[in-house]
Design goal:
Length: 26
């Protein structure tokens, strides 16, 4: 699935920018 792959990449990018511990969850 393309959308799933994009979400995974976006999540990794965001995690790396926020420290890699789901900073965008709060």
């Amino acid at each position: 699935k393309d959308s799933d792959d994009r979400l995974s990449t976006l999540r990794r990018s965001t995690e790396g920018k926020r420290g890699g511990r789901g900073g965008r969850r709060n």
